[in-house]
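User: I've been trying to design a sequence by hand for this structure and keep getting stuck. Would you show me what you'd pick, starting by listing the structure so we're on the same page?

Assistant: Good idea, let's start from the same input. This is the structure you sent:
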């Protein structure tokens, strides 16, 4: 009886293997067909502060824009501080989004969660005014976050984009906060993109001497001096 059962069991196993092979053959691509890999998760996410208009990739034209993009992407990959300057509507924030989407920048600074070091790849987008509003909220009674928590999240992200740089108050306190933040990111070779509707002279005046010195060593300013695309 055992011998009979073993024969039946062996036949069942063989049948299951044959069925599995047939399914694999059916799912295999035809000759010449190339399997398409799954789409990569976008690094430009609303959860990281990006407006919905920048989540989807855009096809932009303009030889100088693309020249700037290639150069800026290289600067960012090297961990530099990059500034995009010029009038509204010239594609400064869009360029930052496409650089973020390309992913040629470091991973986040690892954090210990009690069991292991956790790392990710975050392109964090913040408007300058929102950074300082978040810091002021930390002083409110019952706040769950400290100023250190806010600044650590900004310092640890693989890429930080600070937009509307011209809208901040430029107080001594704000200048010290920015200098400290950019210095931390510079020390860990994590790139920062600053976006402002400033001229070069105005941006120079808005940055501390130490930040300007770091930009000269490992960064660059790009002036978007063409007309607004929004008017086209």
């Amino acid at each position: 009886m055992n011998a009979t059962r073993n024969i039946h069991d062996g036949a069942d196993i063989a049948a299951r293997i044959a069925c599995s092979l047939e399914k694999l053959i059916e799912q295999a691509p035809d000759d010449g067909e190339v399997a398409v890999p799954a789409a990569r998760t976008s690094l430009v996410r609303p959860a990281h502060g990006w407006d919905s208009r920048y989540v989807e990739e855009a096809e932009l034209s303009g030889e100088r824009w693309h020249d700037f993009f290639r150069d800026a992407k290289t600067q960012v990959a090297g961990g530099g501080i990059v500034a995009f300057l010029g009038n509204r509507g010239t594609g400064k924030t869009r360029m930052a989004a496409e650089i973020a989407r390309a992913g040629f920048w470091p991973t986040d600074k690892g954090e210990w969660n009690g069991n292991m070091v956790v790392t990710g790849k975050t392109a964090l987008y913040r408007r300058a005014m929102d950074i300082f509003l978040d810091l002021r909220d930390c002083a409110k009674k019952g706040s769950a976050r400290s100023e250190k928590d806010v600044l650590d999240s900004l310092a640890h992200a693989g890429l930080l984009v600070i937009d509307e740089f011209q809208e901040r108050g430029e107080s001594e306190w704000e200048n010290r906060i920015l200098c400290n933040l950019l210095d931390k990111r510079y020390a860990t070779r994590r790139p920062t993109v600053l976006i402002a509707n400033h001229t070069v002279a105005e941006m120079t005046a808005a940055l501390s001497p130490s930040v300007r010195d770091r930009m000269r060593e490992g960064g660059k300013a790009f002036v978007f001096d063409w007309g607004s695309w929004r008017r086209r």
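That's my pick for every position. To get oriented when you compare it with your attempt: Residues 2-27 form the longest helix (26 residues). Helices lie at 2-27, 63-77, 92-102, 128-137, 147-156, 172-187, 200-206, 209-218.
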